[in-house]
């Protein structure tokens, strides 16, 4: 009973709630804070104390807290594990109908003596009244409290309430200015639940912080990011030019998320599904915009993880060009418009073929044969590259088999296939790509994967791991465009490469420029020192080949020997077993 008296007379406003949000007991300070006379609030509902526009979200948060605490208790064998105290940030509704910001904390108390657990809500009214129009906004305390009232404690980001307020202001501005445009993104982390459950809630919290750190630099200064609760985030993109600009920002976010997140001693891959409302200015309320962005997010999630979706799909003009071309490329794969050309790799000494590099082409029904530079960048931006590279790998493996059948087992060649660094970052790429190779029935020893240096700059351990898995299959690895990246030399030692390729930009000047000569010289000696094969690409003149050979580079490819050729012509070349170019052979 002493307990009860101190509860009733406490200076802090306190209420006990059940899991459904019903107020089981409230003290005097609590009722006073809301402007109610003594003894009327007990038995009422938390919902009655919240403004309608935040009630839903607040109750969801409340329910979520309840669940997470009961889960912890269950895991702890129903011990006395009292829940952690969380700071909440909801505005309340006073008896007189005025919105009131309070500093609040919420804590789940274990049930005692046959009573179910309950929640203790403690509130402290903010001095100066309604938060935004406080009388003395300069005082530090109030700033701090407003900070907790408007911001998410975990990430420090604005919360949903503040975001809605900003979106509301944007709507007002749109009504005044014809040319002002803004957009809203709704982000939901894919598979967050799994991570949270398998690594624990502390790691989950850490991930949410890392996630927000990763997203922030993708935004412009004028944008407002917010955490809406759980693993949901939203962003107000203020003052945007057009849909393409929105698309660029969204893709930047998805790009930024491709690098794994370091949590504990592991790396976690996290993608987000993003819903986008681009025509936000047409809406009547901020809530409606957020609802539609949320809906679009769901559609994005349904169509596969790590994707984004625009809400205005029924307005064709709103579909950005990029998305249309992305779909076109997707269909191109299904329709067999993606083809491989093959460029021979030769021994510089004998000019005989020792290998082939597969180079992708898009045989476009209207535009004709498109080279990779016309569609690879688009594929990389949209994430489609992963599927494109997998498709190319399928075609490549089938070609290896066909070439073997036609050219005979004695024909000396392996097929090099280019894999974009971005495809490599996909979490299940090793499994997926390995199964392509294994199921194709070609000999993995005939397959070489070409990757560029940029791959080696991210998540070194994860990358090494993936590379080794391919090596274990029997596949060889080639480092492409060597020398054009950053600190390749240091990395090279750590990765299980078999071969490096001297970039065209050096080959083309090796015979006439000291600097290029020096660079090629050191690449060759480095490669040979590490026991790697060295291939020079882009050889167009015989002087270049001579200098390269002199420097100890034994293999090369380039227009001097052959341009990339379609399959049938490649077969003919292999069948002849002769030196290149044919005219000279
Ligand atoms: P890369 O891997 O460095 O391929 C070599 C490029 O140089 C090819 O261009 C080839 O046609 C061109 N080339 C070869 N010999 C010479 C020469 O003597 N002189 C000149 N000027 N160029 C020469 P292509 O086929 O347009 O491919 C461009 C890039 O597209 C490739 O550069 C590669 O990074 C990318 N790519 C090609 N196929 C694929 C693919 O299947 N997947 C991915 N991810 N990327 C690919
Ligand atoms: Ca290549
Ligand atoms: Ca290259």
From TrEMBL:
SMART domains: EAL, GGDEF. Residues 322-578 form the EAL domain. Gene3D superfamilies: 3.30.70.270, EAL domain, PAS domain. It comes from the Bacteria. CDD domains: EAL, GGDEF, PAS. Residues 1-53 form the PAS domain. Residues 180-313 form the GGDEF domain. PROSITE patterns: EAL, GGDEF, PAS. PANTHER family: BIOFILM ARCHITECTURE MAINTENANCE PROTEIN MBAA, DIGUANYLATE CYCLASE DGCP. This is EAL domain-containing protein. It comes from Nitratidesulfovibrio liaohensis.
